[in-house]
Specification:
Length: 793
């Protein structure tokens, strides 16, 4: 739908807009200014302080960067409202609704036209002066990458892995299929296109993606190179840790995703990794803007970057020798430090004005001049959003990583049945160390190790809110526990880098607002809870445990709504003494599981921090009402990063990759112990009837570095640490379905509402899978089926 300002657009103004759409030297016509993605405006000098010379409020958060041509600013919000704004007049000229949810494709302007991708599944071409549609190019899977204008054409990379070349009239010239998933940015260097895509080979367990180097030959593309990660690391192509030291203008970040650096001729270059801004590589100067959202942009003498806390920060391009990591100047946005308050776009610098969009929905223009008021992009009456689709979903949920407070990893869902198709997929900000998601109250909750917490609508994949825990900079894999949902609250256990981030966080699950934060308990062992340590909630109380000193474990109950301590008991004789031949001991306390109205926890000591180096520990049964010890078993305990789950009067204590021990829930007496049959999980094994009745001799299947879940007679989970595969297997371990991702397969999926939700390690994408054929309502009762929707981006 097209809207023109708040009234009629004069013909003269339309002509001026058409002329302005022709790029000038000071313009910023596309994401990072040019198709090579240099993000460099070397001619733009900035003098502080800057004033808010433009501020336009959109209905939804802004994740995409603005384009600026001839004083006209083009920007789109996450719900697909695209606007053209006259900066000098501070007036909205027109708006267009492009559809989709969680849009992050930045518009590009060339030849009097605007090119913008939509997650609804197309590249839209609009007249830059009026917003009138010129063409709509189908884009399989939707578009999240920003289109690039070069060579008198527009290049577009779809979420499903296809590179498209479109001429300036909107006609498709050619299409190149690079795989089935492309979730990052790309660059055009001359007539060479560089982009990551995959899976390249669905049977290659450790090589599912590659760097495509494609030459545009005019009427057709030609792949010049396909560089797998191992080839890059092996030195086949000069591909270093800095942009200046790389043959392709890219660099490797911490052994994970290669990305495009911001460079300028000479020794100056910088890049952004998880929560850290670097000059001159990892050993050079650093600043720590929190989160992993905005990419840096260059003005003449400054670096501009937004942070997850809600600041727009300006750093000196060449830092002083006594650089402390603080910006030379910063601007605070309207929701500083609150959910949906971060600045997640890359700056556009044009005509002395810096443009950045925030998660508060405001497109800011900072420059010299008189400060202006915030104006709405639409008339106020048109900004209502209505009820949320996910809240209408019915059926079983998955509020913990183990399915419920028993962590039995079983689902009562009778509707889910492989094979599946994708209903939606959404790129989120959290990536490396992405934990298993949970699903409750029509919402998918995701936590990642760079401090981010995100909530998505379970029906549409739209990002509802995003917040972060401060000072979780450059944390390691497993430094955060998975989320847990109960009674409208979201709880997360973290091992941060300071008391400000460490401990237990409680959020309002609907808004993301922090309700309370306790520095205890904390994850002591790094890597200790990427999967199995959701917390336990019982009758409005959060049950927590941790090791503080000596041989004891502290156990406590906190009010769910306030965090106020209800009781606290010290249980001694849990942690064994350090052996004389061991230099260092790592203590792990599992938050446990609930069953038979009893809270079961387990703690262990490990040699250093390695898996399979179990020294010893104990498993405890505790009364939730007062913390009283009911029994203690000092012979069987978790080991490595193992977890505890329970069902039908049996408590199962898991040791990473080695043994499972079953205890009687009433007495703590050892019932049986067994080695894993195949592919031992780190934390939990689904406690099916077959598994328990056979004393683990049948009815169980795991995968290294992951956990499996059981739904409707089918096992789900990645079959191996480096497999990059999400798999469904029957009782005979026959594979029924698989989906290959770019990421390593560590987290387990979450079944809910007759769907399967998944977020792989390192990829930063949340998937929603549904049955290819409808099989009935998620509840298993007669009714209208809601799972037969067409696949969309």
């Amino acid at each position: 739908m097209l809207r023109k300002g708040y009234g009629r657009l004069p013909v003269a103004l339309a002509l001026v807009g058409a002329l302005a759409a022709t790029s000038r030297a000071s313009d910023w016509p596309q994401y990072k200014r040019d198709a090579a993605r240099t993000a460099d405006a070397a001619d733009e000098a900035l003098a502080f302080p800057l004033q808010r010379v433009m501020a336009v409020k959109f209905p939804s958060p802004i994740y995409a960067s603005a384009a600026v041509v001839g004083g006209k600013v083009y920007a789109v919000d996450e719900r697909g409202l695209l606007a053209c704004i006259d900066r000098a007049a501070h007036r909205v000229l027109w708006t267009v609704e492009i559809g989709g949810v969680s849009n992050r494709s930045s518009p590009a302007v060339a030849g009097g036209k605007v090119f913008v991708g939509s997650t609804a599944g197309f590249l839209l071409v609009l007249d830059a002066a009026t917003g009138k549609e010129v063409a709509k190019v189908p884009a399989d899977g939707g578009v999240i990458a920003a289109p690039a204008v070069a060579n008198d054409a527009v290049y577009c990379l779809t979420f499903n892995g296809k590179m498209l070349k479109v001429d300036l009239s909107g006609k498709l010239v050619w299409s190149y299929d690079g795989g089935k998933s492309a979730n990052g940015e790309f660059a055009v260097q001359g007539k060479t296109l560089l982009f990551w895509d995959g899976p390249v080979d669905e049977k290659g367990p450790a090589e599912p993606y590659g760097l495509h180097v494609v030459e545009d030959l005019g009427e057709r593309p030609e792949r010049k190179q396909l560089l797998r990660r191992a080839e890059l690391e092996g030195g086949k192509v000069k591909f270093g840790s800095t942009p200046a030291g790389s043959e392709l203008g890219m660099f490797q970040r911490d052994g994970w995703w290669p990305q495009f650096g911001v460079t300028r001729r000479g020794p100056t270059y910088l890049f952004r990794d998880v929560g850290t801004l670097h000059w001159g590589g990892p050993t050079g100067h650093r600043a720590l803007p929190p989160g992993h959202l905005s990419q840096p942009a260059l003005a003449k003498d400054h670096v501009v970057v937004g942070d997850a806390d809600g600041r727009i920060c300006f750093y000196k391009l060449v830092p002083d020798k006594n650089f402390t990591g603080q910006p030379a100047w910063s601007y605070e946005t309207s929701r500083l430090g609150k959910p949906n308050g971060g600045v997640g776009t890359t700056a556009a610098v044009s005509g002395g004005v810096v443009y950045l969009g925030g998660e508060d929905g405001i497109l800011y223009g900072l420059g010299q001049g008189k400060e202006v008021e915030v104006i709405p992009v639409l008339p106020q009456a048109a900004q209502g959003q209505g009820p949320r689709p996910g809240e209408k979903l019915k059926g079983p949920e998955w509020p913990t990583v183990g399915g419920d407070m028993s962590y039995s990893a079983l689902s009562p869902d009778t509707n889910l049945k492989p094979p599946f198709k994708i209903l939606w997929k959404t790129r989120i900000a959290g990536s490396g160390g992405q934990n298993s998601v949970i699903v409750a109250a029509g919402t998918v909750f995701a936590v990642s190790y760079n401090g981010l917490v995100e909530a998505l609508d379970a029906e549409t994949g739209e990002i509802l809110w995003r917040t972060y825990h401060p000072f979780v900079h450059r944390a390691g894999y497993g430094d955060d526990g998975p989320p847990t949902y109960a009674e409208g609250k979201l709880l997360i256990l973290r091992r941060g880098t300071s008391p400000a981030s460490t401990g237990l966080w409680c959020h309002d699950a609907r808004t993301g607002e922090v309700l309370w934060h306790k520095p205890k308990p904390t994850l002591i062992t790094a890597g200790g809870a990427p999967q199995g340590d959701g917390v336990v909630i019982h009758e409005g109380k959060v049950l927590t445990a941790w090791h503080e000193k000596d041989d004891a474990v502290e156990a406590a109950a906190l009010e769910l709504g306030t965090g106020k301590e209800v009781w606290r008991v010290r249980h001694e004789g849990v942690i064994p003494p350090k052996p004389a031949d061991v230099k260092a001991v790592a203590i792990r306390v599992c938050q446990g599981a609930l069953g038979e109205e009893t809270w079961f926890i387990s703690a262990c000591a490990n040699r250093d921090n390695g898996e399979g180096r179990h020294i010893g520990g104990a498993t405890l049964a505790i009364a939730p009402a007062d913390g009283k010890l009911l029994w203690k078993n000092t012979e069987q305990s978790i080991g490595g990063f193992g977890g505890v789950n329970c069902r039908k009067g049996t408590v199962v204590v898991n040791q990473t990759g080695t043994l499972a021990h079953a205890l009687d829930a009433k007495t703590g007496k050892s019932l049986w112990s067994s080695k894993w049959r195949q592919g031992a999980p780190w934390h939990l094994m689904p406690l099916t009837d077959d598994y328990l009745n056979s004393q683990s001799r049948k009815g169980g299947f795991g995968g290294y570095c992951t956990d499996t879940i059981w739904v409707n007679g089918v096992w789900y989970g990645p079959p191996g640490c480096a497999s990059h595969v999400l798999s469904a297997r029957d009782a005979n371990e026959r594979e029924l379905w698989r989906y290959v991702t770019i990421s390593r397969g560590c987290p387990a999926p979450a079944p809910a509402y007759g769907r399967l939700y998944y977020a792989g390690f390192g990829e930063g994408v949340v998937y929603c899978f549904v049955n290819r054929e409808p099989t009935g309502p998620p509840s298993g009762k007669p009714g209208k089926d809601d799972t037969a929707k067409q696949e969309k981006g």
